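During the reporting period the student researcher (J.K.) took over the structure-prediction task from the postdoctoral fellow and processed the backlog of single-chain submissions. One of the processed entries is reproduced below for the supervisory committee.
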Amino acid sequence: MLRALQIIQLLLQQNRHASMRDVYYTDPAVFLDQATVARAINDVCIYFQCSRHNLNVVCSRLVMGWLRFIESGRNVDCTRNIGTVSSNEVNKSFQIFVYIMSLAKYILVVEKETVFQRLSNDGFCEKNHCIILSGRGYPDVSTRRFLRILIDVLKLPTYALVDSDPYGFDILATYRFGSMQMAYDAKVLSAPEIRWLGAFPSDCETFNIPDRCLIPMTEKDRRKAEAMLKRCYLQKHAPEWRYQLRMMLIKGIKFEIEAISALSFSLLSQEYIPSKIRDGLYI
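J.K. obtained the following structure tokens:
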């Protein structure tokens, strides 16, 4: 943690920002991997009772669609930079937003960059008048804070699309409830309005996902799912989510979002997402 503190001090003194990956590559012999960096930064946040954006440490994320905003004097037009707006455009002090404008109908949060790029290639935002945001896996503080601001300002329905596995479910829960490590900042980092669009364990039958795309859960997956089932807030605030997690455990299989496109590359963007939103097939 000492090395992380030294880097944070330098960033604050120079008023610069760095991603978790940047921090790792400043001294890979010390940090060993990026997970070590994440733990060290979280420890610093807990010790000082602050958020990562206060330390000028951010993770990269992607946003595209019907959205324009002015932040820190910078004009960001996501309609002109579809698929390319990343951390440098949205990761700085969120107190400095002076203008946010959108004609979008909803916000879609996707777990992975691969799915984000697929939807970008399909022109999904342009056809469906929406905003798509991805934290590239587990969302960092600035990504969740950015989502919270979009929801507060734009008042749009918000949906999430994650893998049908315990880790996808955990990412989904992080967006809705915040992380346990940063519970003290939950009000500005959580999105209780978010609705789970998929992928559900039952989608493998509904959308005829081929058996070759269904992966047996490992013992590690099972332990992860069982631990999450014990979280009291799921039973109280999201019993339907908890039920789906139980079904995943009972079935003993998992699959990635990309499996939905196994029969047709356009199935995800042309049928799966639009029909689920249109017919209210989300929880």
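The committee noted the following: The radius of gyration is 19 Å.
J.K. will present the remaining backlog at the next meeting.
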